[in-house]
Design a protein that fits this description.
alpha/beta; 9 helices
Length: 263
Amino acid sequence: AVVSTQSTGGDGTTSVIILAGELLKVAEPFLVENMHPTVIIAAYRQALEDAIDMMRNEVAKSVDTSDRDEMIKIIKSSLGTKFMKGWNDLACGIALDAVKCVHLEDKGGYKEIDIKRYAKVEKVPGGSIEMSEILDGVMFNKDVTHTGMKRRIENPRIVMLDCNLEYKKGESQTNLEFMQETDFRKILQLEENYIKGICDDIIALKPDLVLSEKGVSDLAQHFLLKAGISAIRRLRKSDMNRVARAVGGQIVHRTEELKESDV
């Protein structure tokens, strides 16, 4: 019950424990009288339906979600018992703004608020609680793969990849035997041509930034740097999903499938 309450509401876990204990306590006399458990469970379910009906028709009231002051009051009722009580105004404002950032409504009127996937709490050592703020965007602690790549880009064209920008290794142990010195050069040339091919697929779309969930080889960094493209590698899947949601792009699994609409 506690896990379910925490995952759905995020609050009221202590109350749920006390309430569940009292409900079980009430059932004890009936168990002593050898009443069948299914009868007791049926009574609990009927009580649940009555409670929901009463809450819906007699207790609950409509709330205007566009009224910031009204929403802040509701959030305060939850945060009032928590450690953040001393910073209620700051915490409530951040919570409301975070939900508004991930709120999505399509043309059909369907609303989606997925704070688990698209809202992230990033903890930075140092500072004070008053320095906490909401960032209308995506933040992750990663640096570009090459020191010569640009770190500040305004309004970039972004390509998101779920594939390696390096030579594909064998899934099992692979042995190569070379009879001549030129054979080894041919293998190296094949690897270089492969990397150049996937980089050319990316460069053709003229992006400013490449984000990859996998690795980016030194050779790929060289080709991207020459084209003036910055690259960040080994991003988490969750971070990539947030970037895709924020910029409206698509995560692509193969570079040859890249098209303008994915940028």
